[in-house]
Design goal:
globular; four-stranded parallel beta sheet; 44% helix; alpha/beta
């Protein structure tokens, strides 16, 4: 039996990064102290943004197929490192026999508690924005804002470049940061990396304390769900929040 099934492939690099972070953020002295995970890396799942904004092929049947595989092999929980896929969060919550760890929901809770006095700016795919996913899941989060359409289009280009294997992440991060600083007052805003491709830019975003990475929140929630200690020396967010919310 596994603790967690990771429904991945959306995209593969983001899935691999989530696994790396869960291992890095877990305080463990031996192999046996880490979380038992099974990774379902299915890159054939249809594009989520294409479905939401262009009426493309639905990704839901393929996602549900992988969730059922995770349940059938005995995973207690499942998580999906793709923000846009949470357009279907209500369907995921209905699955019997395995519990959904909602990355968007946990990110909204974290933002509301830790940054209650800030504007929450969502950096995401056009599908996540068009589907209004963060506002629907985090209805009580507070002042949610989005960048201009010009910036959103450039963010989408950035996401596609990362999916296509672009390795000059410093250049992509610098361009994104400069655009955001032109549109939002830094002292009043916290930016949510609400696409797991954008999560790969986190090490190169030199604006300490101004970013919430949904992937980091998901990693923390998974570790807490599995009753493992968080390594505060490596974890990017407030570890105390996850200790206090271990029954998320």
């Amino acid at each position: 039996m596994f603790d967690v099934g990771i429904i991945g492939g959306m995209g593969p690099a983001a899935t691999a990064e989530l696994l790396r972070r869960i291992v890095l953020y877990t305080s463990a002295q031996t192999d046996q102290e880490h979380i038992k995970m099974c990774i379902f890396n299915d890159p054939t799942i249809p594009d989520r943004t294409d479905y939401i904004i262009r009426n493309g092929k639905s990704p839901l049947p393929a996602i549900m197929y992988n969730i059922n595989l995770a349940r059938d092999i005995g995973c207690k929980y499942f998580a999906i490192p793709c923000n846009t896929s949470h357009f279907f969060y209500k369907e995921f919550e209905k699955v019997q026999g395995i519990e959904f760890i909602n990355m968007v929901g946990e990110t909204c809770k974290y933002a509301a508690e830790v940054f209650s006095d800030r504007k929450i700016c969502i950096l995401a795919t056009l599908g996540t924005i068009e589907g209004n996913i963060y506002k629907k899941v985090g209805a009580t989060m507070g002042n949610v804002v989005y960048p201009s359409m010009e910036v959103n289009n450039i963010l989408m280009e950035t996401i596609c470049c990362i999916k296509a294997g672009e390795n000059n992440l410093v250049k992509l991060a610098d361009r994104m940061l400069q655009m955001l600083l032109c549109e939002f007052p830094v002292n009043e805003t916290v930016f949510v990396l609400a696409c797991t491709e954008l999560s790969l830019l986190l090490p190169y975003l030199n604006l300490n304390g101004q970013f919430i990475d949904a992937m980091d929140v998901l990693a923390g929630a998974i570790i807490s769900k599995c009753y493992k200690p968080i390594n505060k020396e490596t974890f990017n967010l407030s570890g105390d929040y996850f200790f206090h919310n271990s029954n998320l």
